[in-house]
Write a structure and sequence with these properties.
The chain is an all-alpha fold. It is built from eight helices and no strands.
């Protein structure tokens, strides 16, 4: 017995409906996973890119790029050295806020490099760090923006103080989480 054209059409509709449901569930799970992992960074990227699909594509690209990194914990000696240098930078703030912010920016970059993050331009560094530190990456962006304004002579002492607070937040994460967020390759 040959199936009637109506039966073929009904079968095709059922298969398409099941595929659409599976695709929708898979996409929803993917979105939820990315949203949970990236937190406020998810919303920022989706808003900046003008849509969920494009924003999620960028976040997934970041994760794939991140998997290729050879991140490593800091040795006890390196960690102690960075803490000593940070305390020195903080103590300089009272007498030289502008110089201290410049040093803090460089010290955070040094800590990222010591951990194994690649050193591209600022936007790439922020994107790379967002995979492991999605909440505090915004602190990094804010501090860097203040540092750029400072280089143009447009930042107040209060702005510079806020930059130091932002840098400290990321710096502490870089030193205190040696492998907590590292993925296995």
């Amino acid at each position: 017995m040959n199936p009637s054209p109506l039966m073929i059409v009904i079968f095709a509709i059922v298969v398409i409906a099941i595929a659409a449901i599976v695709w929708g569930i898979t996409r929803k799970r993917r979105s939820q996973k990315l949203r949970e992992h990236f937190g406020p960074e998810y919303d920022r990227v989706v808003r900046r890119e003008g849509g969920v699909r494009k924003g999620e594509g960028i976040l997934e690209f970041r994760e794939k790029r991140h998997e290729k990194f050879k991140l490593r914990p800091l040795s006890t000696a390196d960690r102690s050295s960075f803490l000593y240098r940070w305390n020195d930078v903080q103590s300089r703030f009272v007498d030289d806020p502008k110089g201290a912010v410049t040093l803090a920016d460089a010290l955070v970059t040094d800590a990222m490099q010591a951990r194994g993050y690649p050193m591209g331009d600022f936007d790439q560094r922020a994107a790379d760090i967002s995979v492991d530190h999605p909440v505090v990456v915004e602190n990094y962006r804010a501090a860097h923006a203040i540092a750029r304004r400072h280089s143009k002579g447009e930042a107040s002492t209060e702005d510079l103080r806020q930059a130091m607070v932002h840098y400290r937040t990321l710096f502490q994460e870089l030193l205190d989480q040696p492998q907590a967020n590292q993925r296995s390759a």
